[in-house]
Amino acid sequence: MFRGITFVPPDTKIDFVSQRAISWFVSAFLTVVPLVLVATVGLNMGIDFQGGTLIEVQTKENPAKLADIRGKISGLGLGEVQIQEFGAPDEVLIRIASQPTEEEQQASIAKVKEALGDSVTYRRTEIVGPTISSELIAGGTLAVVVAMIGILIYVWFRFEWQFAVAAIASLVHDVTATIGLYALLQLEFNVSSIAAILTIIGYSLNDKVVIFDRIRENLRKYKRMPLVELLDRSINEMLSRAILTHVTTLLAMLPFLFFGGEAIYGFAVAMCFGIVVGAYSSIFVASPMQLILGVQREAFSGSTSSAKGKTEKGDAEAAAGA
């Protein structure tokens, strides 16, 4: 009978937790370095958070002559102006710094259109005032914080507080690493970036809960197995599922990364990176933290006779494996 392709042999025994000295160093690097990058290099704040005017145009020349466009706009006295190719070679994105008043904001658009004349076709114009941008920053930050608090409560009630703390710590690791990627590559950080971070949090949490559930089952099943061996066993048992899930999701995101265009490029990059770093933190951060937090087997002790039978069987298997 055909049973499908086995990507990970069922008897796989990789010492993930036993290599925690190396993984702690890598995890510290992925947490601290992004914070340094944000503090020194900074984030490339998009129009959503910075405020100002965004004008997308299509030139009649292909490729667009950015130097000519920059020369026409730079002398208008509009403050900071950013001009970059957007998607196709003949598409240009113009960002104008936020103006003091709404009237001046509208006047800046009129000046740009007058300077460029009929040499371009205007595809979209967006205006975000400083008040709206500050509200978006506060709302985005609040959304991430509320998501973290909700996750903490959910995991605490479903498992134990040790699992909840481990989940939050590993998710903070994922979020910090993703924000660091934005700072390193100077990707535009906007509302879509917040959506990407929240999506990564939810996706990564699902992976961690699956492994936590197997750890809980094995804590009930193997009463005498050393905790390091038990954690490694739990991860290895879920390794095939994790690889299939992550690879499938990554393959689904790759078309957005390569063919989605400039508008969702930052979102796609963050998602692909988040899938990888989320898988890493589930194995090398969330699970080994149970050793530091001191998870107690007694909290998962079964009281039924069936649970007792499974425990005795698990002990026998553990003794046989030893």
Automatic annotation (TrEMBL):
InterPro entries: SecD/SecF_arch_bac, SecD/SecF_bac, SecD/SecF_CS, SecD_SecF_C, SecD_SecF_C_bact, SecF_bac
Subunit structure comment from the entry: Forms a complex with SecD. Part of the essential Sec protein translocation apparatus which comprises SecA, SecYEG and auxiliary proteins SecDF-YajC and YidC.
Origin species: Methyloceanibacter caenitepidi
Domain of life: Bacteria
One GO cellular component term noted in the UniProt record for this chain: plasma membrane
Encoding gene, per UniProt annotation: secF
Keyword field: Cell membrane, Membrane, Protein transport, Translocation, Transmembrane, Transmembrane helix, Transport
Name this protein carries in UniProt: Protein-export membrane protein SecF
Gene Ontology MF annotations: protein-transporting ATPase activity
HAMAP family linked: SecF_B
